[in-house]
């Protein structure tokens, strides 16, 4: 029981740290700070995305902040590939460490219809976003993810 309470407390601290870090990034963006897309910034954002995503399931924030000023079609293609590789790497690492349980696979199966629905809806939304900046959507989704993390840390 003591170990469970300790682990719960660590998860709350981690979720708060990641949530507040994401909100800091959004705030800096809203204040006009623009991060150039360079190999170094992409590397740092990629590492942060992998770290945040594996620990809290909120990995998109750092990369979406880097690509928020890009045209939707180009950003979408790059980010989709990035997340395909990143999520695959995280799943492999978690499997090697023995963290993935059978119950997790049932959850994956239960969520599969939502993934299919998301893919279908993304095609409709993508057509509406052609030629537009992803910035408003990126900032809204990133902020929402941060607030959900912070809310989760309170329970």
Structure description:
By secondary structure, the chain is mainly alpha-helical. The chain is 83% helix and 0% strand. It has helices at residues 2-30, 39-56, 60-67, 72-96, 102-129, 135-154. The radius of gyration is 17 Å and the shape is globular. The protein starts with a helix and ends with a helix. The mean pLDDT is 86.
Give the N-terminus to C-terminus distance in angstroms.
17 Å
Into which percent range does the helicity of residues fall? over 70%
**Average pLDDT level:** 86
Shape: globular
Tally the helices: 6
Q: Describe the sheet with the most strands.
A: none
> Which radius of gyration do the C-alpha atoms yield?
17 Å
Uncertain spans: none
Number of strands: 0
Strand content: under 5%
Return the string of H and E elements: HHHHHH
Backbone structural class? mainly alpha
Short précis:
The protein has 155 residues and is mainly α. Helices cover 83% and strands 0% of the residues.
